[in-house]
Amino acid sequence: MTAEKELDESNVYLGWLEKAISENYIKYYNYDKFANREEISSCTYGNVSRASWGDSGTIMAIKYSDNLTIKEIVNEIKMQREVD
Taxonomically, which superkingdom (predicted)? Predict the structure, then answer.
């Protein structure tokens, strides 16, 4: 795939993600507002941490990876929404 085609594909997925957030299809959380982060799992696909959210103290799981493409992130969100 050419670099231009990869960029176009990335823009499509980024557009989907921005629209999903703006239309409340998925909820956006500012990473900086999480406290007491503690890694609970680490694999080749990424890491999972538990953390408390903002002033509410609600415990949440945070999954993250430095190696995922925007396409992989969007596809994972779509799969997760199907099982919710």
Answer: Eukaryota
